Amino acid sequence: MPRGRIDVHHHFFPAELAKDKLIDFADIGFVSPKENFPWTPEVSLKFMDQTGIDTSILSFPALGSGSVSEENRGLARGRNTQMAKFRDDHPTRFGFFATMPFLQDVEGALAEIAYALDILKADGIAISSSYGEGSEAKYVGHKIYEPIWAKLNSRKAVVFLHGNQTPSSTPYPDPTLGIPIVEVPNETYKAASHLVVTGTKRKYPDTKIILSHMGGSTVFLSVRVARLSHYMGCSLSPEEMLADFKSFYYDTALSAHETTLTAIQTLITPDRLLFGTDFPAVDKDITNWYTKHLDDFYSDKKEMSEDVAYRNALRLFPRLQT
């Protein structure tokens, strides 16, 4: 049984991303640390050994663009096969959340869920907050995705939900406030809120959804949704909506601090918080800064600290207990 941390928010960057020059996110206002790329499993293993992480659950970065095509299905299958190989090569060090084809391809997504869980033995499924561009974009609570949620629920699947790199209708306000900093957290919140107000979260309670970055804006704005969305016609009561927000899991990646941890413990029970880093999109100094704040917050609460570090994850991923 692991006694180090389990990192549920740890990205896999395949070689073609570097070829497409997507590692240098200049167009969205973010630059990932050059020393982490080109990414290989060894880059992550070195980081994990240095930071006391026993196991990382890999996930492909959230991309909401694509097409309904055999090519897109092939990309998803290839990425999942790669991650499965890394897991097989290092079975105690890596797991993975399977990436999906462009989600408007419902048939393709259902096929990939079955293949990923049954053949590749993925630890769960990773999805983006929305799929499609501009006015054609659909958030994950949209009725088109209902067969996907029904299948995930029937499998009691773990789902890792990451905010999309969606630009605002206006430019981001400053070079130091790029899309990953100011927009991605809101995309996670919008997706979580959409799952709540559409009744999707309540209808499929056996799907265990992890919200990245401590839910982004969710913790602070859930009460706004609960009352105002009810006023605007959501059939759920404010209390029902808040109960649904409480039923998500939340990871600590790029979010752990006294301010946020104090807030989230008023929303969720301690078993719903999971450790995450967002490596290799950020460097070791950044992850260590957040981890120190996490450790400081729980310095006099050893049991809760260990729950967040690894025990809560062990309950979601029983295979890691062996």
TrEMBL record:
This is Amidohydrolase-related domain-containing protein. It comes from Lentinula boryana. Belongs to the metallo-dependent hydrolases superfamily. Residues 6-318 form the Amidohydrolase-related domain. It comes from the Eukaryota. Pfam families: Amidohydro_2. InterPro entries: ACMSD, Amidohydro-rel, Metal_Hydrolase. Gene3D superfamilies: Metal-dependent hydrolases. Keywords: Decarboxylase, Lyase.
